[in-house]
Amino acid sequence: MDNVMIKELLDEYTKEKNIFKKFLIGSRMISVSYNETFNLLFKQNFQNAGLKEVQMILTLDAPCWFGDRDKWLIRTKEFGNNAIENESEDCLLAYELVRLKYNNLIQVEKVDFFDEFLTITFEGSNSLSIAYYAESDYAWILEEVSNKMEQERMMVCCQGNELFQNNILILQKEIKQISVDESHAGGNQGCGRSAESG
Known about the structure:
Largest sheet: 6 strands, antiparallel
Number of domains: 1
Strand content: 25-35%
């Protein structure tokens, strides 16, 4: 892949990625639930941004893992014994998420977007990676928890390896500032679409 195409991919979805980061970095994961998908509830407190507190739920419907992917696959085989592969992965993911809650390692310290997945780093360097690929209509959705109608809620999602946002009417100044800061630090590390390395 030539350098121009790589730059175009890295520059894509900057606004959506920065919105996702703004809502998650510094937030705390206050609950975990499972009903065919994993649902992580986060609480974020804002200062001078028009909102005092926002709760967002992150719904995961794509492959997820903690730490190194290859080591994770080995752990799932050991963890599940004779269980079906997908079931053992879900069981291990549930175990790791509950472990974070139990040990109060629930604050998000960093979010990184790579070529084929994003990584959310919690306290204690516990990193949860989420692939952009999913067999369903979406890989993940980060959505506001409120009494608003569904189409009125703030939302960022990854669908078909593209990122979308809706009803984000706040934090635009802060989001632009993140873009400026990251451009000085070397820019984003990846994008919402798959890109081959090299």
